[in-house]
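From the pipeline queue, job 12 of 40. The input is one protein chain; the requested action is below.

Action: predict structure.
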Amino acid sequence: MKTRIITAVVALIFFIPFVVYGGIPFELLSILLATIALYEVLVMTKQRIFSMNGIITLLLMWLVVVPDRYLNFLDTLHINEMEVIFILMALLLANTVFSRNKFHFDQVGICMVAAFYTGFGFHYLALTREAGLMYVLFALFIVWSTDTGAYFIGRAIGKHKLAPNVSPNKTVEGFIGGIVCALVFAGGFYYFAELPGNIALVLALLVFLSIFGQLGDLVESALKRFYGVKDSGKILPGHGGILDRFDSLLFVLPLLHILQII
């Protein structure tokens, strides 16, 4: 517990200035976090990032995660982002031919999903900060209140297992408690921060976002269980890896924009 607390305090001291300042430093931090998360996925799936397929996957993820204005140079080359994605995908597929069966079609799928899974989530992290500091804090409040509510309410009154084959400690009662806490705390933050929009509609969408945030946590748990690892990484002592800490946000952040809350 002591290690977890120390790590959390140090991480916050490091992270908060980037969140407050925003701009290019925060965008670069988002890219760095996405890179570490991708590395964690590749290690879990027993692939090497310093290999042909690893480097191609990294390039694909960077193409997804960087802010759109960073890709303006593609216009001068008369090529668009989708065409570059196709080229990188074709290179991954071609590598199945030249790797002598060490890299196969299933692994191409893993690389593609890993690149988009981590890339899109952290792309929208930077995009959310660009929209304003309060929006980033709102996203963090959604995840924090959902996770905290699910944990404590699940421990207090949880009796019915939610997904025992994936995460044995999570309960239906905790799942519902997480939604309620998101409505109270994240909804309260949205109201008192005087963010634009219909508060009644935002509260309704918060239910959806809280559910998807918890689903993101379960997806990462399923990934770890399938590959037989306890944590996605070891960069955060007592907390695991970057993917362990951002799994819910990777689901919530894109939806904030898709649902036009931001």
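Job complete. Residues 199-227 form the longest helix (29 residues).
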